[in-house]
Automatic annotation (TrEMBL):
Organism for this UniProt entry: Metabacillus endolithicus
Keywords attached to this entry: Membrane, Transmembrane, Transmembrane helix
Lineage: Bacteria, Bacillati, Bacillota, Bacilli, Bacillales
Domain of life: Bacteria
Alphabetical list of InterPro entries matching this protein: YczE/YyaS-like
Protein known as: YitT family protein
TM segment ranges: 5-23, 43-65, 72-90, 102-123, 143-163, 169-187
Length: 201
């Protein structure tokens, strides 16, 4: 049980840090994060607050897709992610400004890798998924799509909404949109083996 909780918390912690790095790279945030930043700029509230609000909305959308009951325990997950994003973005890296293109690219790549590792880690635990990742799982279960395609569908949908709200969209957004799905797919298998090995100890 300790390993399970540890994977869950570390995964969400890494995910929040990864999101912050992609935003700070200022090359274009991931589609969902660009949407949250756009909402924060247009409506107000913190980026983490919009992570939570959008997450609650997606909980009910996911229930409709799989024709089941809303997974309300997922609120715990999005609360942790929302607080994690605000912690990294406001408390730790508020005054961090990347002065060169090289640093921006490094921040973007590191952010993508950390998000993928974080997602792959906490999904192993079978605790309620982040509603964005649950959207990927719901599409996978309902339409038998692999994770790569299911994740990309969600990312493109968010990208359109982020564009409408004038969120921070750029070349980084396109890279994240089409790379995050394959990256999760690639990391998921070895992460599963590692998790199962740790549980047997």
């Amino acid at each position: 049980m300790k390993i399970r909780i540890l994977f869950y918390l570390i995964g969400l912690f890494l995910m929040g840090f990864g999101v912050t790095l992609t935003i700070k790279a200022d090359l274009g945030a991931g589609a969902w994060d660009a949407l949250n930043v756009g909402l924060s700029n247009v409506v107000g509230l913190t980026v983490g607050s919009w992570v939570i609000i959008i997450g609650v909305i997606l909980i009910f959308i996911n229930a409709l897709i799989v024709r089941g009951k809303p997974k309300l325990l997922a609120v715990v997950t999005i609360l942790l992610i929302g607080f994690s994003v605000d912690f990294w973005l406001i408390v730790v890296m508020n005054n961090v400004h990347l002065s060169t293109l090289l640093l921006q690219v490094i921040s973007l790549i590191a952010g993508i890798i950390l998000i993928a590792i974080g997602v792959a880690m906490y999904l192993q635990t079978k605790f309620p998924a982040n509603p964005i990742d649950q959207l990927m799982i719901s599409l996978h279960e309902r339409f038998q799509l692999n994770f790569m395609i299911a994740k990309t569908i969600g990312e493109v949908t968010a990208l359109i909404l982020a564009f409408i709200l004038q969120g921070p969209i750029g070349v980084g957004t396109i890279i994240i949109t089409f790379l995050i799905g394959p990256m999760i797919q690639w990391i998921n298998k070895p992460m599963t083996k590692r998790y199962e090995l740790l549980l047997k100890r």
